[in-house]
Amino acid sequence: MTDVQMTDVPALAPDEAQQKLKFYQKGTFTVGNRLISEGERSVQASQARSNALTSGHRACQGCGEALGARYAIDAAMRASGNDLIAVNATGCLEVFTTPYPETSWQLPWLHSLFGNAAAVATGVAAAMRVKGKKTRVIAQGGDGGTTDIGFQCLSGMFERNDDVLYICYDNEGYMNTGVQRSSATPPAARTATTPALGPEPGNVFGTGKFVPKIAVAHNIPYVATATVADLHDLERKVVKAMAIHGARYIQINVPCPLGWGAPSCDTIKLARFAVECGLYPIFEAEHGRVTHARKIRKQIPVREYLKLQKRYAHLFRGGVDDPRVARIQAICDAHIAEYGLLGDDEEV
Amino acid sequence: MDHDFAVTLDVGSSLANHTGSWRTFRPEYVHRLPPCNHACPAGEDIQGWLSLAEAGDYEGAWRALTRNNPLPAVMGRVCYHPCETACNRAGIDASVGINSVERFLGDMAIAKGWAFAPPTAKSGKKVLVVGAGPAGLSAAYHLAMLGHSPTIKEAGPAPGGMMRFGIPKYRLPRETLDAEVARIVALGVAIEYDCKVSDLRATMREGGFDAAFLAVGAHIAKRAYIPAGEAAKVLDAVQVLASMEGEDRPLLGRRVVVYGGGNTALDVARTAKRLGAEEAIIVYRRTREKMPAHDFELEEALEEGVMMKWLSTIKNVEAGSLTVEKMVLDEKGFPQPTGELETLEADSVVLALGQDVDLSLLNGVEGLKIEKGVVQVGANMMTGAAGVFAGGDMAPSERTVTVAVGHGKKAARNIDAFLRGEVYAPAPKHELASFEKLNAWYYGEAPKTVRPTLELARRSSTFEEVVAGLDESNALYEARRCLSCGNCFECDNCYGVCPDNAVIKLGPGNGFKFNYDFCKGCGVCASECPCGAIRMEPEEI
Ligand SMILES: Cc1cc2nc3c(=O)[nH]c(=O)nc-3n(C[C@H](O)[C@H](O)[C@H](O)COP(=O)(O)OP(=O)(O)OC[C@H]3O[C@@H](n4cnc5c(N)ncnc54)[C@H](O)[C@@H]3O)c2cc1C
Ligand SMILES: Cc1ncc(C[n+]2csc(CCOP(=O)(O)OP(=O)(O)O)c2C)c(N)n1
Ligand code: SF4
Ligand code: SF4
Ligand code: SF4
Ligand SMILES: [Mg+2]
Fold first, then answer.
1. Is ipTM strictly over 0.90?
2. A36, B17, B254, B388: which could form a disulfide with A40 (CB 3.0–4.6 Å)?
3. CA distance A112 to A89
């Protein structure tokens, strides 16, 4: 006689699990899926989502930053049981949500200066600790407020491993003040301060910095990049970050129709293309090591991405590709090699 | 409210700011016509029933399907599925196996004994239907569902028309056909067998019929003039196939030659094989590409050992042999003789050259127009004679079971209007949900399920069904491959992607609503709707 081992974990044989996944193929990439249980669906699919950033805000039509912020903060609110405070740097996200005395925010929210969000958040986290509260703290800002003026405060927050999740909404420029170059503006992009003039129009090659890598170098518990084109990936990362204490950093690619010179309806498409061409690597790192890279699903040449945006129009003048298109493609190829962006996804 | 130092205004919500006023374009939820529905000759709402099937509501799916087509188990076997040819999923990997799922639903309905729900009110109007083929059965079913009392008069001893006396059993088991016909009869459709109508007007008068639908098919075999010796055995394909239903199977011999290039030729050759012929050769005057038969049927026939003689015509037939002449195609693709002759041994020659319509029952009916051997009908399926409608093979048609079913439905709806002294106005068609209207990114990879086929040994000796059906897990998987072209499948994308929370989710089954107070008209929802169910309309400013 053999004893039959019983477990109450519903075990799906790999084949069945695979089949189940295929059954739901129609909803694998969409926001929701009517065929799966409510609990398995995304936060954004829920009628009960908090809409942390509610209607009536003054962001431009199709603003990727407004969308990314709601995606991220809604997920963080659910993960923290709505016990959450946000500290915001100056920038579009702050300006379009809180023209005095109105606010779009559905959670306690603080704004101090352009460059000190990380430091203020550190202070808020310390205050909560002192008061014996479990309230979680998020700091958020644009790429300018993060990679440039806020960088010192951010590095300090990382280095001290303060219990803050910092979210950078990367729209690749100082959009709120009229589209100036930041250290996150990609090469060749036209901004107000890198005009499409002269022998090398647009932003200069070989400049700028990629803060996610710098964050990884701080050996903090969690670093991730994400985009508004992959909600499931974004929510998963926010939830994961919220389960960790210490300094965490998520940078979300948020296309800006105004600054990038693109139709407002293309916001998500742009984010998708940025990932699918390899220009914007989507990965996770824990304690200084890259642990996961999101594979490219349908690779496209970077040119298809660039062509959609007026900030790159000078690369296609007169119907011919500027040689710098190939240089940008080389950047994509280097990312693909560095992060292993092609092939099948091993992790789910 | 008491204010803190330096605070002068109360905290307000941005909800006071109606950003809807910025809008120049307005998103609207729309329905677009899925290409499959557009292509289905029976006018099925394929996308609609697939969406019920993919949620596991098979009975609901079957009921939705049979609103347009009462013969899904038959259809799932013999329909040439133009829906699949049109299916948008082909642009991603391969078309949805619509026909397989249809058959699965049809078979499940038979197994579970699902019945049609008869209408509550009766009109008291009597309609004569001539012929119990697919066109007649479909018309009678729809007329009965509309509350009328149809009577089918059928010349033969059993229902089905060419579905029984043409299509062989190994493609359409008779139990399947019988079950679906029985369900129509149970609805209150009377079928009178061995009751050939030879004088339409007299039959209508005597039976007190208010209208008639004619669906006598095309049963007279076309003949080509081929000199044949007295002892030569030359048969007609339709006769051979029809006799398969009787007691005595046709005697075709060891070597059978079939002349023609349509599906009927293939069916005869495959039948001959099953009857024990060692050789079954199809002689066709053109090439494989020009053959009217479907390629998958040719493949099945070749697998079973049927042989093809392309670019050949039969010159004459003798006892035990025949002479063929080689042909070449001219620039226009017409076969031209070469004078090169060859002798083939054959115990019998079966001609499968198409069929003509027997129009004798229409003698004396005024106002009819006959062209190219078929009765002309208007868009409402009515012939030149008031109250006399016609469809299926006897009217201009592609001559398939599905077209016949579609004609029957269309005729029934027009007869219904005619009986009430009205004109039937079909609902206007939605704009086509063509592939460019979709955002295919959102659909995951999912290869098509292939239906298993019977092993070859059994295919050449028995009349067992060749192509098997799907089981529930396959069928569900296949249904879920549907992209839901042009019709919201509640994926929540629009609800998720709106940067302004201007989409209101109304809950399962109720869809979504735009909150135009806040919608800025960015159009992200329309771009990211996978299935093209949102359209941006210019705002009147
Ligand atoms: C061998 C063969 C294989 C085929 N395979 C396929 C297939 O796989 N898929 C497909 O879609 N189509 C197929 N077809 C075509 C298809 O069967 C026909 O297009 C279809 O059956 C036509 O339907 P119908 O109702 O117009 O006529 P029919 O099916 O021909 O039915 C007409 C009925 O009317 C009866 N009738 C005739 N005259 C009178 C009268 N005067 N009074 C009373 N009753 C009368 C006949 O007995 C018959 O029952 C095939 C045809 C053949 C010959
Ligand atoms: C110290 C300081 N310098 C300059 C400004 C003006 N300013 C406000 S927002 C902004 C740019 C914000 O850019 P980013 O952080 O990328 O956010 P975005 O608006 O692009 O979302 C600038 C320069 C300021 N508020 N404070
Ligand atoms: S400028 Fe760009 S980031 Fe700012 S509100 Fe407009 S779209 Fe959003
Ligand atoms: S994907 Fe579905 S709705 Fe679209 S054409 Fe194919 S079966 Fe029809
Ligand atoms: S995006 Fe999804 S939920 Fe919205 S209309 Fe399209 S199919 Fe329906
Ligand atoms: Mg910015």
1. yes
2. A36
3. 7
